[in-house]
Write a structure and sequence with these properties.
The protein is of the alpha+beta class. Helix content is 57%, strand content 17%.
Length: 449
């Protein structure tokens, strides 16, 4: 992205809200659709003129049958009331001589309305003849049974809306649950040792980030396992090589000492030659054991026993770096110094820092071209003390081989002291840069300096 901002993560919370909104809209849509279709069906079928007339005829027929069975007259209000109460979704108006004679419904009989209304006051109604003991009456039937159907449509629409909402949420929940189960199974396989199982994140939510984290963990474990395997193979190779290399000078050393101890020499000069040869083999053993110790420093799992102490950087560098420069000059190297004024305090282990400088000097003696100058830079900047050493690489180093163990020891030491160790090599130049955190000098030290 051009603005440098990271894309917003579509979190599970946002997805849940979006799913709920979609489910709500779908539920509202299914509710409106069901309600509209249901009401249209009621209006078209149940509320048609033919259907209403058929229901009214059935109601009148039921009342006529009831009246004949009990030989009712319009004055038998108690019996008529019983029938009316049983008809919970209709009521009936009886007119005689076009005047309201009786009104009966689910509430019973309304006697106060008798004679107050005229049939002529009603508009667009159908009358049905009803025969009672005291004459013929005109019946007007009002049927409101459709209210139950409308209520049923409403309940059905609400139920379908709830089902639709639940379906959306179940689908979302199933997707999340399935993703969690898949991640759990993959983690279990990794825990069982299947480090070759590659996890692929899909989506851009927390589950995708969890998958990426698990995949990163798998790669890290796999990398460490490979490194441990390589270290084990190197250790085995080293042990085999060291055993062979140590056996030869040790056998020779024991042989020369045995000759000397058993008196198998013809002159003191011959015995001296045995001792010199034994001493040479002992030096070879020391070199091999030193190499083994340096290897253990680099590849050992434990940290070095470094004890940090505060030192005046100027005094310490003047002593340690100066000693190394004098030693190199004695061996014929030309040193170009660029030492800036230093006024700070550093935390370090002097003995281990001396080992770093000794390794650098030893590296120069092995691989630097003595005909070219060695550049040494000391500077204090950006809260750090920097020591930079650069040399020209020897074109034909002969039989000298490098396994870089000394440089790895330097890197490990500097890292544990809170500093850095950087090496950079070009076609003909090798440069090492050391840095350590610099702290201001104490007041007493400033006054002394």
């Amino acid at each position: 992205m051009t603005n440098g901002k990271k894309p917003r993560l579509r979190t599970l919370h946002r997805k849940l809200l979006a799913t709920m909104l979609a489910a709500l809209l779908a539920a509202i849509g299914i509710y409106l659709l069901t309600d509209t279709v249901g009401q249209a069906f009621i209006e078209r079928v149940y509320m048609s003129a033919a259907a209403q007339n058929q229901r009214n005829l059935a109601t009148v027929s039921s009342f006529q049958t009831y009246a004949r069975e009990f030989n009712l007259s319009s004055r038998d209000t108690e019996m008529i009331s019983r029938w009316a109460i049983s008809q919970d979704d209709t009521y009936i108006l009886l007119y005689k001589d076009r005047r309201l004679a009786l009104e009966a419904g689910w509430w019973g009989i309304d006697e106060e309305s008798s004679g107050t209304e005229s049939l002529d006051d009603l508009y667009d109604v159908i009358t049905y003849p009803v025969y009672l003991r005291d004459g013929v009456f005109q019946a007007v039937v009002y049927d409101f049974s459709e209210a139950k159907l409308y209520d049923g449509v409403q309940i059905g629409a609400i139920a379908l809306a709830c089902v639709m909402f639940a379906i959306f949420m179940l689908i979302y929940n199933r997707r999340i649950t399935r993703a969690i189960v898949e991640i759990s199974e993959e983690v279990k396989q990794i825990g069982d040792g299947n480090l070759q199982l590659q996890l692929t994140a899909s989506g851009d939510d927390e589950l995708a980030r969890l998958t990426e984290s698990v995949e990163s963990m798998r790669k890290s474990i796999l990398k460490k396992t490979d490194e441990q395997q390589q270290a084990l193979e190197k250790n085995q190779s080293l042990i085999s090589a060291m055993s062979h290399d140590i056996r030869n000078p040790l056998t020779a050393l024991l042989g020369y000492l045995d000759l000397a101890l058993s008196g198998q020499y013809r002159s003191p000069e011959e015995m001296k030659s045995y001792l010199e040869a034994a001493y040479s083999r002992a030096l070879q053993l020391k070199t091999l054991t030193d190499e083994l110790f340096r290897y253990s420093l680099v590849f050992g799992a434990q940290e070095l026993p470094i004890q940090l102490e505060p030192f005046d950087a100027a005094a310490l560098l003047d002593q340690m770096v100066g000693e190394g420069i004098v030693m190199l000059e004695q061996k014929g190297y030309t040193i170009c110094r660029a030492v800036q004024p230093v006024s700070c305090q550093i935390q370090m282990d002097a003995s281990y820092f001396k080992r770093v400088l000794d390794n650098l000097a030893d590296n120069i003696c092995k691989y630097a071209d003595p005909a070219k100058p060695i550049h040494v830079l000391v500077a204090q900047e950006n809260g750090a003390l920097t020591l930079c050493v650069s040399n020209t690489i020897l074109k034909n180093p002969g039989q000298v081989e490098s396994n870089r163990i000394g440089l790895r020891i330097c890197e490990k030491i500097m890292r544990q002291m809170g500093g850095t160790f950087e090496k950079r090599q070009t076609e003909d130049t090798f440069t090492v840069t050391l840095t350590l955190p610099a702290q201001p000098l104490a007041v007493e030290e400033r006054e002394t300096s």
